[in-house]
């Protein structure tokens, strides 16, 4: 089965600013009058004027100077998340387990580390931010590639440049590759010599499991650092900083408690998404209050964003649903049990409830894939394909349209005949393995495609099933200690009625007459169990 790359839940909501009624009521125009909006950027590079030059103050005005409010001029379009990108490790929210004194990341930032690292974590947890902090703090040369657009030629060009700099002056190069899982094996292999010989220190970011998406030689030469999803308290901290930081709203915007919690629920541990939703809400608030012209600063003159306007801005009602509390676990449990119990109507209700509350749709799709094997299994072999197809549809078309595929899969799974024989089979097999009931692979089944295999007796006596009538031949397949061990016991529902008959035929043909009724004790004493 191919690996499924699921849809990014950041597309769950529309964060576009409301369409302006006239130029005088646009959020940008309102910011220019009220002083509420995009304040000065304070990153290390300073601000950019429309002409491309740096503003000494870091703010953006018509000619590079600060607007009267201390914010950006009306023409600035820098997203809030970009303006608030942490400039040093102390501003990072979360990930304390990676940033302690003497940690590889901190040593790399302080210029004392040389170990290549792979940053693995969900979107919005700080992977790209950490890489940019490394670029600004280490004092080393910094080069950045995106795996979405770069090819082998680009990789080799950066490596050749780094090697030349190292030989000429001993300068070290940090190479940041975003979304490294998108690189092919060939592209990843091209990095190996430079990492091995220290020409570059690699900092690679990925949202996919690197044990599946990154080649083993590159993994073995790098330190894998796992970034955790931000907690709800972390997201609240991000929102507080955005409200008070001069790079954000500088105390000129307030959130009601309900609005704050709504953003926290929608964010799902993604700081970037939280800031995007906040910015959409503020844009809607500014457009609504455009006729007013309050003073430019001070807590007494802050505008207040409530949950009603926030819902309008992001087109999501504040459904009661706590992703980390009882509501989350209760709704998910009811969703699974409704499909298992054959009630498609209840299952659809819980599906809609999760999606409308901002639950990660990839989580929902994963639960359905699991249920397709655990609770349906061979009673309806097509159920797994339906669940996987729904997950792929989520990846291909995204929400809201993919809710149709998810709903179809929910209905199919609820209506399908049920069997838990698959999970009972793998649990029984795993129990034997954990108990040490294994043994050498029978010689006739061993690989015989290498020089010296025949001399070792590997493959000798193997009977090729396709040479036999019916494509089945009598032959031992399990290790000696497990001959006669039965793990899969079909149920009586759906396709498993036919599967049970076929299984009896196969066990008779493979093991010999009467073998299907015997199960040898894996302990090896020859007693039936």
Please name the defining characteristics of this protein.
disordered C terminus; 529 residues; 9 strands; two-stranded antiparallel ribbon; alpha/beta; single chain; disordered N terminus
Molecular structure report:
The protein is of the alpha/beta class. Helices cover 43% and strands 7% of the residues. It contains 21 helices and 9 strands. The protein has helices at residues 27-34, 80-83, 104-109, 127-137, 152-169, 185-189, 192-197, 210-213, 216-220, 232-244, 257-267, 271-288, 307-314, 326-340, 344-356, 361-376, 382-397, 402-415, 421-434, 453-456, 496-511, and strands at 47-48, 54-55, 117-120, 141-146, 173-178, 200-206, 223-226, 253-255, 303-305. The strands form 3 sheets. It has a 5-stranded parallel beta sheet. Strands 1-2 form a two-stranded antiparallel sheet. Strand 4, helix 5 and strand 5 form a beta-alpha-beta unit. Helix 11 (257-267) crosses helix 12. The model is unreliable at 1-75, 294-299 and 515-529 (pLDDT under 50).
